[in-house]
Structures are given as C-alpha cells and as structure tokens.
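Same chain as my last thread, 895 residues:
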Amino acid sequence: MRVGRDRPMSSTTRAAAAKPFPNYTELPNVIPPVVWQVLRVATLLATIALVWVIFTLPNFGYMLFWGLAVPLLPAVFAFVPGLWRQVCPMGFLNQMPRTFGFSLDLTLPIEWKNIVYLVSVILFFGLVSLRPVLFNVSASAFAGLIIVALVLAFFGGLVFKGRSGWCGTFCPLAPVQRAYGHAPVVMVKNGYCPTCVGCQKNCYDFNPTATIHSDLSDNDLWYAGHKKFFVGALPGFILGFYLSHNPLVFGAVRYYLDMGMYVALSLGAFMALTGVIRISAYKVCAVFAMGALGIYYWFASPLILQTVSVLGGIYIPTWGHAVFVAEIGVLAAAVLFNGMRLERAFAKLNSGGSAQPRVGVRTAAIKAAGAGAASDLVIEKKSGRSFAADPSRSLLEGIESAGIKIDFGCRMGMCGADPVVISEGLDKCSTASNEELATLRRLGLEGRARMACVCHALKGGVTVDLGQDPHELPEPPQTEPQVDLGELTGIKRVVIIGNGAAGMAAADEIRRSSPTVQIDVVAKEDHPFYNRMAIGRLLYGRSALDGIYLVPPDWADKKKVTLWLNTMATGIDLKKKEVLLGIGETLTYDKLIMAQGSRALIPPAPGTDLPGCFVLREASDAFAIRRWRQERNCKTAVVVGGGVLGIEAADALRHLNLQVTILQRDDRIMNRDLDSRGSEIVTKFLEGMGIHVRTKAQVAKVAGDGRVQGVDLQDGESIPAQVYLAAAGIAANVELAREAGLKIERGILVDRAMRTSDADVLAIGDVAELPGERGGLWSVSNAQAAVAASTIFGQVASYVAPSTLVTLKLEGIDVKGFGLTEPKSDAQEMITDADEPENIHRKIIVENGRVVGAVFVGPPGIGKHIGAVITKNADLTPILDELRKGNWDALAKVT
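reply #2:
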C-alpha cells in the first residue's frame, strides 16, 4: 500500500526499502514536503477550531473528539505512524522554533533524559484516567488541557534542541505510539528527520522499527524496564477505564481502586510470561500491545460507529461492530507478523556482539539538509553514521551507541586496542592525558591517532574514520631529544628482562631519552608484546593472537631494540654485570631492569596436579585450555577465586560454552574492591548470565581418575568439573633475583627510584615490591617504568603511586572500585543513594573534598565520570550538595 502518488525509485531508495530497518531519511518522498507543510498547518488550525467548539458547543465537541478524532489515532499509530508524526499539531509547534531558526537548542540534562519516558507514562495514565472524573464534566478544563499541551510543545522546542523538548520525551502520547507503532505496515518518510541533531536515545522518530528492540535490549535495565512496565500495564489500564465503577456515582476512590486492580492483574500476567516462560520480551510486549489495541476498539467501536452514523447520516447495521473489530484484528495480526519478522532480523544484525542497535543516523541525508544540521554531531566516515557530541562520554561509547562495531580492549586507555583516526575536528576533542600519550607512543601512533576509550568530543564537527588504518598515515616529524642522556651519562647498554607492560614501557621511555643506547629485551614467551588483559578472548575467539598485539610488527626495528623472543634469563652476575641466557649467550649491561612479572598462584589442595588443572596468565595457558576443552569435549568448569581475574576468567570459559561455577573463599566476590551491596549486584548479574557463584567455599581436593572430574569442598559438597582453573592471586617471579643475591620479600625490594639492593639493577611492575604500595596493575607498571628510565640516566625521580581504579571488564555491566569500601573515620563522609534501583549502586567516600573510596556498579556507563575524578584527584567540594541529592552527573563538572 502506498500513501499519495508514486515516484520512480532510485537505486539508493530501492536499497533502503530492502533493508530490514530503513530509517526515515532513507525513504522516498512519496508526498512532496510542501504538501506536508500545508497539512500541518491545516491540522493545527483544525485543532484550534476543535478547542473553540468544545468551549462553545461541548456536546458536539465531545462527539467529534472522543467519537472520531481520538479513536482514529491508535489505528494510525499501529498501521502508519509516520502519518501522525508528520501532521501532529503538537509536533508542528515543537519543531517550529528549530524550523525558523530561533530555538535556544539547549541539550536536555542527562538526569531528565533518564526519567522523561517515565514522566510521559505517568502523564498518560494520569490524564486519561481523569477523563470521567474531570474532563467529561468540565468542558473548560478539557479545552484548557489541549491548549496547555500545545503551549508546552512550543516552549519545549523553543528551549531544547531537536524533538527532546516534547515529542520524543514528555509527550503523553509518546508511550502509546511506541507501543502500537513498533512494526508499522506502511512507512511514511518523517519530514523532521533530515534536521536530526541526535537529541534522543534510540530515537523513535528516526527508526521506529528498530527502536523497540533497542529499548528492550538496552544495557540500562532501568531504562528498558520503563518500556516493559507501560506495555505490561496498558491492557489492564484500558480494561479498568471501561469496566471500573463510575466515579461520579461510586466516588473517585472506588474508581481508582478498580483501575489499580486491573493494572496490577495485567502487570502480573506480563511478569509471569516474561519471567517463567522462555519467550523473548519483545514477543510478550508485541502481544500485549496488540491485545490492548483490540481491547480498546472492542469497547470504543460502538461510539465510533454511532459518531460516523450521526455525522454521515447513514445507517450502520448491528453486525457492523463485529466487522469493525475483525478489521482491527487483521491489522493487529499484520503488525504482529511484521514485528516477529523484524525481531529475527534485529537478532541477526546484532549476532556479532552487543545487543545495542546496529542502526544509527545516516549522515548523508542530514548533511544534504544544510551544514548546520550536523553541527552537534560526531560523524564516523566509513559507515556514514553519526552520534551526538557529548563531553561526558568517550568516542568509544558514542561509536557503539551508533551501532558501529569497534574493539574496545580494556576501556582504560592503556591497552591500545582502539586507536582511531580523527580526520576533522581534532581541536574539538579533549586533550590527551599522559597515559594516553604513552600508549600512542608505544604503538607508534603519536600524532596520528587518539584512543577512542578516553578521547571525548567536546563539541560537534568531529569526524572519525574507522576505515583508515592509522599505521598507514605518514609519520609526524620526529623530534630528537635535546640531549642524548646515554652519551651524557656514559650509559651504553640497558638489558630488560620481560616484555610485558612494564618492560615495554621502560624500553620506550629509554629510547625517548637516548637514541644511541643499546636496548635488549629478553622475553620468555615467543610472542611480541600483547594485551594480557585480553587473553580470555584466546579461549573462544577465532583469530588467535591477531588483534591483541599491542605494538606493530616493526616496532622493535623502528625503536632499534633487540628483542630476544622465546629466550629465558637463567642467571645474573651482579659483579660482572652480565645476564646469562638459556641459549648459552651472555648479555653485558650498564643498567639492568627486571620486569619479569608474576605467575598465578594455585591454592594448595590434593589433585591440583591432575590433567585439566590450569591457570590463565599467559597466551600459552589460554591455548592449552582451549585445546583441552575440545579434545575432552568438556562441559563443566570450576574457577577458584572470586576477584577480578577469577570473574573475567569465568566469563571467558562461559564463552567457551562451559557451565561455570566460581568458588570464592570469602563471604562475597570482589571483596577487596566492592562493598556488600556492589558484590550482591555483580553476583546476581553473573547468575543471570548462567555463571554459578559459591561463597565461603574452600576446596578440599580436586577429584578425578587420570584427569579432573570434579571438585570436593570442605563442607562435603561435590561439584562436577572437567576444567579446574585457579585464579586466586599472583606471586612475583623472584627466583632469578634471589639466586643473584638481591634483597627480596614477596617481591624484589626497591626504593622510590625503583633501585634494588644493587644500584645498577632496577625492578618494576609485578615483580617489584615497594612497601605500602599496591602492584599488579597496568597503570602502576607504566608509572614505575618512567621513574626507572629517569633513574638509569641519573635524573632525580621518585615513584608516586597512580590512582588504582579497579575495573571489571565484563560486557553488560559497569563495575568500578577504588580505595576504601567503607568509611574508616568520622572525617570521612559516605554519599550514596537512599532509594537506588535494584541493579544500580553508587557510593563515594570523601575526605577533605577528595575521593578516598568509591564503588560504582550498574549498567554500562554508570561509572563513566568517576575514573576521571579519581585520576585527577578532583576537589568535589563545589558539587557535594548535588551529589548528596543524588545528581551523580555532577561529577562531570569537576573532570
């Protein structure tokens, strides 16, 4: 079916029509835009005229409104929602300021964005339920309501950009349109879309067929829950509206009690279907929405037919009601059929990763509308998609929100997995931190790329090009150090043992200080520097180490570093300043840096030497587990350790299609980094993923005959397991230092210049022990490497511990912990939400205006500001009152 006149379709239009989720900018203009403009003005004038009729001739006005105008809308919403979106008088007034260029174009505050849908739901239920109580009784109140809605729509567009001032946010009709119009039979091009400024999340105006799937699969469960609540309550609300006792006879209290009962029954049925039966949330929502549509027309059709009969002067037989309802049933069935088809297409479109939509704004049509239309946008050149510039989120978050696939690595700006080329608007981005610059230097990309996970677009006009490999860009002019510190100090050769984060950072820092010093890096593994935080992917990925190397293949040649792969350092002669290699060669040194890292601890228990027992510390460990799982057709696994490493290992095994149980000795998981509430949320999340969590669990023995078959606990319980993975902590690799005669305790003892007991030997990273300081983190390794490089060349340097924010790298949840989990003195203030949602927990502990402890757990993005606050040691004094009131977005003001 087509609306208006046909036009020949271009190849672009045909391609858009063939897509499962064509957006409104990709649809043909079947009706010329000028016609829509005329229809908008006509609809607005008709609405004003109707208000006048309600004032002067209430009975006739009510008949027109309730018997004709309103009953048309649900069918239009379901069958061809774009028709109403084009001519809605409130929408016309809302867009008028932007159309004529006098809107203030402010961005809706983030705290409002999080609740606007819920506000519109409350307005819808509240205003509709007032019809028999107030609006059917007082014509002036009813007409006044329409006028207020028109005025609010206009002022919303005057203040806020796009449709975020009314149509896509506060409008009481918006929830109904989303519920009924999620799979329209006919798509009509939305004339407001070409001026899109990316003001909404999962924009219904732009792509209605994808929005419901994006909403229901949103990582923010609270955000998704609002949509489910409305659809679940809608059938009961309509039943309650028509079947509740008349408030004018039985009173408003009885009326609202009846309404509440029907809504509760409807919500109960919805929760039972989604919680008990294995059926997708979308299918239940679609059935409930179309069920509500059928219920509405079952009750409303007599009034509709009566109005048509009176106005048209025609007789409608008694069986006309049945025919009318049957036609609505056919419409509902068509929407359901179309919706189920689109659900499969959406699932296929997102099968490669996150459930976030792969449908973003196509910028070609927006740019065609005028240069100003894209002024608030960040454009990704390869895909043509865009997203709103938002200083509070990283380019990585924006790219993913537009449905563009990008490898995100650790999301901390250190691993180097997501460098991106910014071809336009680099001056409109945040300034690179020292940590980001260090990562870019290590990758050989300084001046050619930015790290998407930490770079922010402060304003629009930025273009990111994911199709451009930054390594293929010309290198920026090299600047030699003003002084070659090697020549100045007489240091000719530095040997580094270990090619992990600490060792490679040290090599890079040394080369920046001296282009002539000889650098040898001795690496036990046979792989160049790779992202050890991503080795879980080696368990279930398809490309082995491809994609997790952290330096380009020619890094060693360009840096003039001799890299000894698959080579073990077997001894150190401190007097001769020599390192003995396992291949029989000897390396002399002027300075030696020990950065050989740590190994995984295996808690002592009988049976841990059985085949099938593993650790996950190096790439070879991951390959061994993957091979074992395939050779033995393993089905179950146990992970010992409920810290960050254990949880991430358990998730990797889950991706390997194993049924996984985490055993945690303490009373909660991540007990060092989270409080009890945060641990509880993470535990529920893991259980929801299918990972079982056992706390207060201690291993008595690993059972099996010739290989691992189960784990016996000290309380007598036995857990089946064909894979046993220990992730209960690490121990520094100190054997080489002990044999050489260096002072050691748990690690190699160093001072704040990173010197060991031998002045010519330094230790950094996991192997180094600086009393009172925490190790085992990438940021610590980078900081210590910089100090060690300065010390080598006689410069005064003292290690200052970086802020060690712990982040759980798990898709679908944001988990961050820092410092204290509970206050330790009266001088420390704890700030948290008294009425926080079930799946969200935010807490900070402040002393003298500075954060000394933090726990952030919830949907992705919940802790996006706290990392910068901690890194900068920001003073929270100016925003403490806002934080106490629950405005966590105030953290962005001090970052």
